[in-house]
Amino acid sequence: xxxxxxxxxxxxxxxxxxxxxxxxxxxxxxxxxxxxxxxxxxxxxxxxxxxxxxxxxxxxxxxxxxxxxxxxxxxxxxxxxxxxxxxxxxxxxxxxxxxxxxxxxxxxxxxxxxxxxxxxxxxxxxxxxxxxxxxxxxxxxxxxxxxxxxxxxxxx
Length: 156
What we know:
By secondary structure, the chain is α/β, with parallel strands linked by helices. Helices cover about 40% and strands about 20% of the residues. The relative contact order is 0.12. The mean pLDDT is about 95. It holds the Pfam family Ala_racemase_N.
C-alpha cells in the first residue's frame, strides 16, 4: 500500500535492493522496477525472468564484465536489457568511480555497443555514505558532492 501511495497509484518507477522485493512488487502489479545492485552472474536467470515478464525491469552495471554478461545472455522476444550505469561517488559499496578512466569508456560501450540488446537508461548514484552522518549539513554536503560528480560525468 505504501508503494502504491508513493507512486501516486501508477505502480511504476520503484527501486528495490533485492530480487525478493522485485518479485513481491511484480506480483502486486508493479511493472517498472529497478534492481539497484549490479547484477551478479548467479542472479542473471532471475533477472532475465523478471525482465521478460515486466514492461520495464531495469538493472545496474558497473563493469565491462557485467556488460559482456548481459550481451552474452540476450533477452528473447525482442526485449532489451534496460541498464543504468552505477557510479560510486563515495559510498564504496558498488559502482565505478566517476573519475576512473574506465567509467566513461564503459558508459560509451553500453550506450553505443548493441542497443538492440542492452540499452542505457541513465546514470545511477546512491548516497549510502550519508548513513553515518550526524546532522543535516553533513548530508547536504554529500548530496552536493554526489550531484557535482554525476553532472561532471554526464557532461563528459
